[in-house]
Amino acid sequence: MSDQFAIVIVAAVARNGVIGGGNKLLWRLSSDLKRFKALTWGKPLVMGRKTYNSIGRPLPGRETIVVTRDASFRPEGVHVARSLEAALDLAAMRAREMGAGEIIVAGGGEIYAQAMAHAARLDIAHVDLAPEGDSHFPAIDPEEWSVVSRERHEAGPDDEAAYEVCIYERRRKGTAGVEKGSEGA
What we know:
The protein has helices spanning 30-40, 49-55, 84-98, 109-115, and strands at residues 4-14, 18-20, 44-48, 63-67, 79-81, 102-105, 121-127, 135-136, 145-153, 163-170, 177-179. It is α/β, with parallel strands linked by helices.
């Protein structure tokens, strides 16, 4: 991996695979949001337009790269890419400039599904809820992914549920990064 930036998918996923509904999160997990901030700080953060719109602003301390086909989408303070591949190339360039060792993919469902083939690691908070929603995380194939760590978190004072953080690493060699030497879009 020394010649590549690791691509890490970070998500909070309900027991039924739901990650959101109506373009918003369906639960409040303050402790997991703090963990997300720590994991992503100082790194390029790739997300889809719907996810960006649900947040409503670039996240401080990170380089936000939004994937969209909408040519008129140009929010201040974010980079825009027309495809996931272009976003990953741009993220590699930004990671190199920032001195970051990895690229974070932060949703939503369509971006996660496309990014699974590129990811080296999944950092998943499995939330002890099963809400109705319209956005889902792709299935994690146990033939492709191995759990390397697991940590249970009981619901804190500002959490709506308990959750378990599982770190998965890819079992097989494949496309699991973006070359550090590649030029961005």
